TrEMBL record:
This is Glycolipid transfer protein domain-containing protein. Belongs to the GLTP family. Gene3D superfamilies: Glycolipid transfer protein. It comes from the Eukaryota. Pfam families: GLTP. GO terms for molecular function: ceramide 1-phosphate binding; ceramide 1-phosphate transfer activity. The keyword Secreted does not apply. InterPro entries: GLTP_sf, Glycolipid_transfer_prot_dom.
Length: 222
């Protein structure tokens, strides 16, 4: 029995595991002004770790973005470990750093959450484009999604680096084959992508509202 369960779990793709993680993300809105919105840290961090695995399938193009995700995850986890009860809610981290006046600093956890949110937006957007426009070149889809999600927040250094990396993205089929199961059809892979998007989009919308409330949405990188 245990072996069967193990084999079933082993067959799951990163997308399918990501869908499971997102199903555990329940954002609780305050009933009145004395309460705080609750955005759970652990399932979101787990989801971001899975995003790294998906981006790895694109290859060296995503190396810088992958490194940023990893560093931002580590920053949040480090603070979480100092008081898991309090910092299991990401909003408490934003409140703490705003009160300390450190929330806009480069190495703040607030910025870490901001950039993780933007990366989630980029990844979800890219998967949606792939699902709808399989005939388009992967390079064009990555660039289109980058221009819509990350480019408005990047300075010239980050933008220039990304442009160079675009030249080494894989073709559509190679990427789709990499993120799907061995015997999975493109139709069921599209269904996984649509499910992921339907779960992630409202979560990102809620996080963006909170980030805007704390004055973080307009911060840029170098």
């Amino acid at each position: 029995m245990k072996r069967k369960i193990y084999e079933m779990e082993k067959k799951k793709t990163e997308l399918q595991t990501a869908i499971e993680e997102l199903s555990h993300v329940i954002i609780t809105k305050p009933v009145d002004i004395t309460e705080t919105t609750h955005i759970p840290l652990r399932p979101l961090v787990s989801f971001c770790n899975l995003i790294i695995q998906v981006l790895d399938k694109i290859g060296p193009t995503m190396a810088v973005l992958r490194q940023d995700i990893d560093q931002n995850i580590q920053r949040l986890e480090k603070l979480y470990e100092t008081d898991p009860c309090v910092y299991s809610n990401l909003v408490e981290i934003l409140k703490k750093e705003r009160n300390e006046g450190t929330y806009k600093m480069v190495a703040s956890c607030s910025r870490a959450l901001l950039w993780l949110t933007r990366t989630m937006d980029f990844t979800a957007g890219l998967l949606r484009l792939l699902s709808k426009e399989m005939s388009s070149k992967m390079e064009e889809l990555v660039e289109e999604c980058y221009m819509e999600t990350l480019k408005p927040h990047h300075g010239w250094i980050a933008s220039a680096a990304f442009k160079v990396c675009l030249k080494i993205v894989p073709d559509n089929k190679t990427f789709m084959d990499a993120i799907g199961a061995r015997d999975q059809s493109y139709e069921t892979l599209r269904e996984d992508i649509d499910t992921l998007s339907s779960l992630l989009t409202p979560i990102l919308n809620e996080i963006s509202i909170v980030l805007e409330l704390y004055g973080l949405n307009r911060l840029k990188s170098m």
